[in-house]
Amino acid sequence: MADQYNLGALPKRITGGCLCGKIRYEGHFPDNHDFKQNSGTCQCTQCRRSTSHLFFMWHKVPYSLFKWTASTDTLKNYYCSKGNARGFCGNCGTFLYWRRESGPNINIAIGTIDPLYLFGEGWEDSGGEVPKGGFGRALANSCGGHEWVRNEIPGVTDELELVGAGPRGRGERVEAD
């Protein structure tokens, strides 16, 4: 990859949750975690509608290293396709993840990662765990691929540098979980 995709410091873990704070999570990364390959976007109609955005930006966390750290009483799953869960908070509506239930990963919605890890808010109090500026480049570099770009919006999402960073799938998955 080009120098512009130098990811800088890499996190060992992240935390995050929904807007109302009812749902909280923590994800850990193995030492060999490939931050480029595990970051991407999707422009399918389902992702657009569930996120209310032009594309869904995600980072894959191994499900075996992911845990809920607060009650999941308000956690709901919506299945637009068999075996594929879209998780959201039933209280505030925050879209949290997409997960193929038979796969080894959970695709965390980048916007749900805590500000400390995403852009470094409060880094001074992190005891050196988080650098100034956070880990946003490592978590949201989108070098891992872009799914369903056949749904890209001409003149808008097809010209975004971020969406051009990794391989582009035209109607099928770029890579298998």
TrEMBL record:
Domain CENP-V/GFA: 14-124
Domain of life: Eukaryota
Keyword Chloroplast assigned: no
Keyword entries, A-Z: Lyase, Metal-binding, Zinc
GO molecular function, one term: metal ion binding
InterPro entries linked: CENP-V/GFA (IPR006913), Mss4-like_sf (IPR011057)
Keyword Lyase carried by entry: yes
Any Pfam family: GFA
Family classification: Belongs to the Gfa family.
Record protein name field: Glutathione-dependent formaldehyde-activating GFA
Originating species: Cercophora newfieldiana
